[in-house]
Design brief:
The chain has seven helices and 13 strands. By secondary structure, it is α/β, with parallel strands linked by helices.
Length: about 240
C-alpha cells in the first residue's frame, strides 16, 4: 500500500514538473525591433558576412568617427570573424537568422550562431517567419516567439539567454524568403526614420540584377531589383561599400 501511495506521489510530482516546464515557455513576448525608435536618426552600418572587403573600405571604416548615433549591425554571430577588421571591435546589434526545416512546412528549429555569450551586445535580435507571412504578423509590436517554436531544445536555448532579446520578421518574394541582410535593409528603409545607411559588403544589390541567382530558399534577383527601384530620395541616404 505504501509503495502504491509513493508511486502516485511520484507521478503527481512529475506531472507538476511538466506543467511548470510548459508554463515556463508562456508569455515570452519579444518586441519587434522595427516597431521601436532604435534606428531613428542613426547612421547604420550593415555588415554582410562577406570576407572580400576592399582595403579602401576597411580604411574608411577604421577612420570613421563612431558615436552614440552610430549603429553597427552584424549577422549570424559574425561567422567570418569580420569584427577584427571591419568596424573593428564594435557591434551594437547582432541578428540571428532562423533555421527553418523546409522539408517540414518551414518549421522553426533554431537560430544560426545563437550564443549565450553576447551579453556585451546592446541589441540581440532573433528572426522569425512563416511561409508568405502576412501583414497581420509583420506589423505586430510584440510577438510570442516561444509558443511559435515547436522544437523544445530551441525553446530552452532561448529561455537560457541572459540578455534582452528583440525580434524581427523576414518577408517573402514569390514564395522565397528574403535573405536576412536584405530583410533588415528592407525593414529599415520602409519602417524607420534612419539618417544614413552604409551597406558593407552587400554585393547582392550591385551589378547586373538579371544575373543574380534564384535558389531553393531566396530570390536574390528580386532583392537586387527591389533595391534598384528604391525611390531616389531614399537611395541618396544609402552608400554601398565593397
Amino acid at each position: 500500500m505504501k509503495r502504491i501511495i509513493l508511486f502516485i506521489l511520484i507521478l503527481i510530482l512529475l506531472f507538476l514538473s511538466l506543467i511548470n516546464k510548459i508554463e515556463s515557455f508562456t508569455n515570452e513576448h519579444y518586441t519587434n525591433i522595427f516597431e521601436t525608435t532604435i534606428f531613428d536618426n542613426k547612421t547604420i552600418f550593415l555588415i554582410a558576412n562577406n570576407p572580400n572587403i576592399s582595403e579602401k573600405t576597411i580604411k574608411f571604416l577604421d577612420n570613421y568617427k563612431y558615436d552614440n548615433e552610430s549603429l553597427v549591425v552584424r549577422f549570424r554571430n559574425d561567422p567570418k570573424k569580420l569584427v577584427t577588421k571591419v568596424c573593428k571591435n564594435r557591434t551594437d546589434m547582432m541578428i540571428y537568422r532562423a533555421i527553418l526545416s523546409y522539408e517540414n512546412n518551414y518549421k522553426l528549429i533554431g537560430f544560426h550562431g545563437l550564443t549565450p555569450n553576447n551579453n556585451n551586445i546592446k541589441y540581440n535580435v532573433l528572426t522569425y517567419t512563416i511561409k508568405n507571412i502576412d501583414n497581420n504578423i509583420l506589423n505586430k509590436k510584440q510577438f510570442d516567439l516561444i509558443n511559435n517554436i515547436k522544437d523544445v531544445k530551441a525553446k530552452e536555448k532561448i529561455k537560457n539567454l541572459k540578455y534582452n532579446k528583440y525580434l524581427m520578421f523576414t518577408q517573402w518574394f514569390d514564395n522565397k524568403e528574403h535573405t536576412t541582410g536584405f530583410s533588415t535593409l528592407y525593414n529599415i528603409i520602409h519602417k524607420t526614420k534612419f539618417k544614413k545607411i552604409y551597406l558593407v559588403g552587400y554585393s547582392i544589390v550591385t551589378d547586373n540584377c538579371e544575373k543574380k541567382i534564384i535558389n531553393t530558399w531566396h530570390n536574390i534577383k528580386k532583392e537586387c531589383n527591389h533595391f534598384k527601384d528604391i525611390d531616389k530620395s531614399i537611395k541618396d541616404k544609402i552608400e554601398i561599400l565593397l
